[in-house]
Amino acid sequence: MSRRIRTLMAALCALPLAFAAAPSAHAADPTTMTNGFYVDPDSSARRWAAANPGDGRAAAINASIANTPMARWFGSWSGTIGTATGAYVGAADYRDKLPVLVAYNIYHRDYCGGHSAGGAASPYAYADWIAQFAGGIAARPAVVILEPDSLGDYGCMTQAQIDEREAMLTGALAEFNRQAPNTWVYMDAGNPRWADAATMARRLHEAGLRQAHGFSLNVSNYITTAENTAYGNAVNNELAARYGYTKPFVVDTSRNGNGSNGQWCNPSGRRIGTPTRTGGGAEMLLWIKTPGESDGNCGVGAGSTAGQFLPEVAYKMIYGY
Fold first, then answer.
1. Which residues form the active site (predicted)?
2. What is the pTM of this model?
3. H or E element, residue 214
């Protein structure tokens, strides 16, 4: 398939010029192999809008959320994972678009928070799952957010569990490097409210950041792009000082239009943020969490489960009330 080539000079603004960025694990740049980001045709927002055309909220949800490029999350619910990722990136490749995928199945997932607990049955099961995930993508262009929350909260974990988790992430990066040469992988680095920059830099490095393209911030959270950008730059300062390299980062802007009120689980009064694009102080601003999907049985999503689409929450998030 022929592809239109475009450069992304704005990405250079993501890192202070004094830093020497570590070489990417991949030579290829998937953003120059595609023409824009992929809109998931089967997102929860799209499915709801299609199933409820007579609902007074449907037009706004369809226009402001369902037709915006955003990530698709993959986990135990995805069936045979290599088939699932292969079908998704294949559909995007057919349209010459760049898909964003989230790998969310690590053993002891959300171990300390609990709202999204689950994941693979063992570290060995996870290694097999993530190998199939990467194999399904193969040589097609993609962006992968690797295991949100995995490095953000170690508060309830023993050192042995931390070591085990970091080994799983390092192994995952090795699989992407081996099988998916045109994929940019971003290790998740939580958000500015979870760990200070020095702590996060150490966790990222120990989990194999050198093998990744970069790191992700604010996934499923509400903190402003400016605060995340400052934090990302601070993490890079620590990486440069301690380990001699820096990495680009991306920010989840799907729900940070009004910033954070200090709550992370379905807070009221939040708003959708800047649609997916390049630049803005980070390498890319992405919609990683679907606006309107619940964080769990909490806040304005009381009675819901994590990932459930709540149309009233989505509708209010469009307007910020």
1. 149
2. 0.90
3. strand 214-217
